[in-house]
Amino acid sequence: MPEPASLHGRTGGDSRDGRPAVSVLLPCRDAVSFLDECRRSLQAQTESDFEVVAVNDASRDRTAAFLAQWAAADDRVRVVQGAGDGLVAALKLAADHARAPLLARMDADDVAHPRRLELQRRFLERRPGLAGCGTGVRYFPRTALGSGYRRYERWLNALHQPDHVLRDLFVECPIAHPTLMLRARAYREVGGYRERGWPEDYDLVLRLHRVGRQLANVPRVLVRWRVTPDRLSMTSSDYTPEAFRACKAHHLRKGFLSPDRSVVVWGAGSVGKSLALSLLEEQVRPAAFVELDPRKIGQTIHGAEVISPADLEAWEPRPYVLLGVGSPGAREEIREALEAMGYAELDDYRAMA
Q1: Integer Rg of the chain from CA
Q2: Quick one: 95 exposed, middle or buried, by C-beta within 10 A (0-12, 13-18, 19+)?
Q3: Tens of pLDDT, residues 52-81
Q4: 110, 223 Cβ separation under 8 angstroms
C-alpha cells in the first residue's frame, strides 16, 4: 500500500486542546476488497484535522494487515480490535475510543467526497442548535440499483432542513447512516448505539428527536454509498420491514403519542394494517382506520372499524392520525385532505410508511 507524499508530517492534533476536530468511526469486517478506495477518499479530505478509529471486527481476510499498514503510514489512524460481535458492538467500541467532539460515521466500502468532513464540520459550526447532520448520497454501482434504492435516494436527497427531517421522521430513516456526523455530547446524552433487534441508526436518530435534538442534511451529495448483495440491510433480520415498523411503533409510543388521545390509521391497505399490528404490539390500539374505498368502509380490521374521511372530520375530540400509506403521492393527497379539515402536521398527524 503506497503512502502518498502529502501524508508525511501530517498529524491529527491541530485542535487547541490537542484533540482532533472529527473522529471517523470506521467498523471493518472482511473489508479488504474495498478499504483502499475508502482510505484514499479519507486521505483526500480538505479537512485534515481528523482521526480514524478503525475497528477490525474479527476479520478473516487481510483487513487487519491493511489497517496496520495504514496506521503505520498515517498517525491519524488508530486501530482497535473488535471481538466479532457485529456492527453495533464495533460502532460502540469505536465511539468509546473516539477523542473528538464530532463523530463521523463511515462504512469501509463507501467513498467520501473530498469536502465531506469540511462541509459537515462547517455546517454544524454555523448551526450550534443541531445535534448532527447527514448529507446527500449516491448509490453505486448504478447497475445494481432497484427501484426501491432509487426512490429512497431521491427522497433522502430532498430532505435538508430540520423541519423536513422532522416531518418525514417516521417515513424512513431521514439520515443516511454512513453520512452521519454527530456531536459526541449528543451521542452520549441518549446512550449511544444499542442493540434492540432493529436498525441501530434509526433507533439513534429517533432517540435524539425524542429528547428534542434536531438533525439536518447538508444539501450536497458527499458520500457514495455502495450496494452489495451481502450488505447487512439485505441479510440481517434487524433491517427487515417488520424491524423498521417495530422501531417506529416503539418510539411513537414512547415519545410522540399522547396516551390520552385516540389514534387513527389512515390507510387500510397492507401498509396501514402492518402499522396497526406493530402499534398493537406496543399496546397502542388504533381506534379506527380511514379509507376512501367505499368497499372497505364499515369493515373491521384488528378490532377497529374502517370509516370514511367525512366520519373522521366529524370525530370529536380529534384523534391523532397516522398516515399508513406507502405511496408519496397518496401521502400528499391525505396531507391536503387533513389540512382542509384543520389538522396540523405533527401536532395532529404524522406521515408513516
Answers
A1: 22
A2: buried
A3: 999 999 999 999 999 999 999 999 999 999
A4: yes
CB 335 within 8 A of CB 321: no
What's this model's pTM, rounded to 2 decimal places?
Answer: 0.93
According to DSSP, the residues that pair with 27 across neighbouring strands are 55
Chain-centre distance for alpha carbon 192: 14
Helix, strand, coil shares, percent, the chain, to 5: 40, 20, 40
Per residue in 319-348, pLDDT (tens digit) is 999 999 988 789 999 999 999 999 999 999
Whether the link from the prior residue into 114 is cis, omega within 30° of 0, is no
Residue with cell 445535534: 131
Please, are residues 111 and 138 in contact by the beta-carbon 8 Å criterion? no
**Separation between Cα atoms, residue 349 and residue 353, nearest integer Å:** 13
Give me the residues paired with residue 273 across strands: none
Q: By C-alpha distance, which of 109, 265, 230, 229 is closest to 178?
A: 109
**Per-residue H/E/C for 99-143:** CCCEEEECCCCCEECCCHHHHHHHHHHHCCCEEEEEEEEEEECHH
Whether the bond into 317 is cis, omega within 30 of 0: yes
Q: Can you tell me the distance from the alpha carbon of 58 to that of 61, in angstroms, rounded to the nearest whole number?
A: 9
Cα separation, 93 vs 175, in Å, equals 22
Instruction: Report yes or no: 279 and 287 within 8 Å, Cβ to Cβ.
Output: no
**φ, ψ for residue 234, nearest 5 deg:** -100, -20
- Please state whether beta strands 130-140 and 304-307 pair in parallel, antiparallel, or not at all (unpaired): unpaired
The span from the CA of 180 to the CA of 213, in Å, is: 14
- CA–CA distance, 54 with 7 (Å, rounded to integer): 18
Distance (Å, rounded) from C-alpha 313 to C-alpha 308?
9
CB 265 within 8 A of CB 272: yes
Q: Residue 145's CB: how many other CB atoms inside 10 A?
A: 15
Which residues are CB-neighbours of 318 under 8 A, at least 6 positions away?
343, 348
